[in-house]
Amino acid sequence: VTRIQVRAYEPDDADGVAALCVELNCASLTDPHLVDRVFTAPGVSAAVAVAVHGNRVVGFAQAQGDGVLRSHLSVLAVSAAHRRRGLGRRLVRAVFTATGTQCMDVVTDSAGDFLRTLPHRAMSGYRVSPTTPR
Ligand SMILES: CC(C)(COP(=O)(O)OP(=O)(O)OC[C@H]1O[C@@H](n2cnc3c(N)ncnc32)[C@H](O)[C@@H]1OP(=O)(O)O)[C@@H](O)C(=O)NCCC(=O)NCCS
After folding, report:
1. Average model confidence (pLDDT) across the chain
2. What percent of the chain shows pLDDT beyond 70?
3. Res 87: pLDDT
């Protein structure tokens, strides 16, 4: 069994996060430079799940918050080969704790079955953009 460590994002993880995004067809984060910007922007908390042997990134999460009340989970993904072993939950806990906020909002059309297993209140979400968002 591969041991997986969940820890804060470091700049050297950018290539691994981008590679995992290619694998998962997550088109917006396949460029390592963009990953690094998005994961280190002011107010952002980001975590990666890394296979201890081989140092491969097998999951990641990124949230941004006000440091007190509210945060928003923007990206969360776990490699298909490592799902259903608690990694998604560990990543969410890591970024949520790092934001220091009381609650974290998430907009999703694919991770509902996962999110409903966490303590939550279901609300309706909207992704607003100047043009039709992806
Ligand atoms: C959502 C996601 C992060 C969950 O990661 P994970 O590591 O498998 O989650 P966990 O193992 O922590 O799951 C915790 C619980 O959530 C529930 N759960 C998770 N995935 C589920 C699924 N696909 N269907 C039903 N329940 C699910 C289960 O109750 C699970 O506990 P169990 O395995 O003991 O039954 C992962 O499925 C994923 O990456 N999905 C794709 C997300 C994506 O495409 N993002 C876009 C890229 S930015």
Report:
1. 96
2. 99
3. 97
Ligand 1 within 6 A of 93 CB?
Answer: no
How far apart (Å, rounded) are the C-alpha atoms in residues 117 and 119?
Answer: 7
Number of H helices, E strands in the chain: 4, 5
Tokens of 20: 């995992």
Q: How far apart, in whole angstroms, are the C-alpha atoms of residue 16 and residue 26?
A: 13
Q: Which amino acid is at 42?
A: P
Three-state DSSP at 131 gives coil
The residue whose C-alpha atom lies closest to atom 45 belonging to ligand 1 is 77
* Per-residue pLDDT tens digits for 24-67: 999 999 999 999 999 999 999 999 999 988 889 999 999 999 99
Atom of ligand 1 nearest to the CA of 87: 7
109 lines ligand 1 (CB under 6 A): no
Give me the amino acid identity at 81.
Answer: A
β-pair type (70-78, 44-51):
unpaired
Q: CA 20, CA 106: separation in Å to the nearest integer?
A: 21
